[in-house]
UniProtKB/TrEMBL annotation:
Keywords: Membrane, Transmembrane, Transmembrane helix. This is Uncharacterized protein. The chain crosses the membrane at residues 20-41, 47-65, 72-93, 113-131. The lineage of its organism: Bacteria, Pseudomonadati, Planctomycetota, Planctomycetia, Planctomycetales.
Amino acid sequence: MDESRPEPIAEESAAGGAGFDLALGIVGAVVGAVVGVWVFGLIARQGFLAVFLPGALTGLGCGALSGRRSVLLAVISGALGTLAGAVAEWRLAPFKEDDSLGFFLTHLNDLRPFTLGMIVLGGAMAAWFGLGRRGGAGLRRTAVARGR
């Protein structure tokens, strides 16, 4: 390959096209978010606070199944990871005035700065991990990513 030419924007995936990779990435993100909220609840009952965990697992699920590097998936994963962190915090400690999720989401600015920071950190981790990597990751790695 000519070294002076930039790498192509679209890359080959492990299987299927861009739509297939996008769908698998979103499925991975949703599964990661659900698992993240559940694991956060388990950890919180033991006295540890890890509000970033739902976001991180959202991104890891997305990146592991996406099969390619994708900015669109990073944005989707980041948004879903931030939402998963907020839902996890709501399940742990809803507001006393109104324990509905809608009220909680419209009053996020009333949370402690540390808690907000951890939710945002989880969203950033979701975006970073959800970006994926060139050639895929895990089971969806291509021969290019394996160095062949």
